[in-house]
Amino acid sequence: MTAAAAHQPSSEVEKTPEAIRAALLPEERDAFDADCRHALGQAAAESSLEPVRSVIEQWWRIATVTRHDPAAHQRMLRRIDQTQSTSQPPGRLRTWDELQTERGGR
């Protein structure tokens, strides 16, 4: 590993509640907190950490995607909000092949 590579920030999110929460968009943090509290309650009731592990895994995936491309994740959340508020699917989205062609990849 080069010295420059060693000092570049990692896109990997640690699987800890603190790291996951920090990587999320601000508008997702309340939902993360609520899911964690609910999972902790389930864990206590079931005497099992599985609910906590499941929530951490689910939100870790979201945090990782968010860290990789926060703008794309934000666009996805806006599309979801629009679809839910209008009950209409978003306009036609382009396929991967169409995007590649537009960008001169083919």
Q: What percent of the residues sit in helical stretches (DSSP H or I)?
A: 55-70%
Q: How many β-strand runs? A: 0
Number of domains: 1
Residue ranges: pLDDT <50 for 5 or more in a row? 1-8
Order of SSEs, N→C? Answer: HHHHHH
From the helix content, strand content and strand pairing, which structural class follows? Answer: mainly alpha
Strand content: under 5%
Radius of gyration equals 18 Å
Major beta sheet summary:
none
Layout of secondary structure:
Layout: H1 3-6, H2 17-23, H3 29-46, H4 50-68, H5 70-86, H6 96-102
Tell me about this structure.
This protein is mainly α and 106 residues long. The protein has one domain (11-102). Helices cover 68% and strands 0% of the residues. The protein has helices at residues 3-6, 17-23, 29-46, 50-68, 70-86, 96-102. The two termini are 33 Å apart.
Q: Summary?
A:
This protein is mostly helical and 106 residues long. It has six helices and no strands. The radius of gyration is 18 Å and the shape is elongated.
Highlighted features:
mainly alpha, 6 helices, 0% strand, disordered N terminus, DUF6247
